[in-house]
Amino acid sequence: MVNVDAAVFQKDNRMGMGIVIRDHKGDFLAACRQGVDKITNPEVAEAIAFRRAVLFASELQYHQTSKQHHVASPCNRACSGLVALSLASLS
């Protein structure tokens, strides 16, 4: 299971994200955190964090994971193409 969350820091003009990967029993396997400058929209921040979580799981070769995310709308918008942001440059 992959848990992911993001937060925006308006005063600092940046976002932060945290990712935790657990096994099927809930035991800790891996974690990472990352900050990104010039991102202050909460939905964009959540979409970026979700994408980073997928990349992180792939990097560690955890291909069969379930993603747990507390905000559905960024994922829905990202999947439908409504979040117009080039995320490729962030990886």
UniProtKB/TrEMBL annotation:
It comes from the Eukaryota. It comes from Eragrostis curvula. This is RNase H type-1 domain-containing protein. Residues 3-64 form the RNase H type-1 domain. Coiled coil: none annotated. GO terms for molecular function: nucleic acid binding; RNA-DNA hybrid ribonuclease activity. Pfam families: RVT_3 (PF13456).
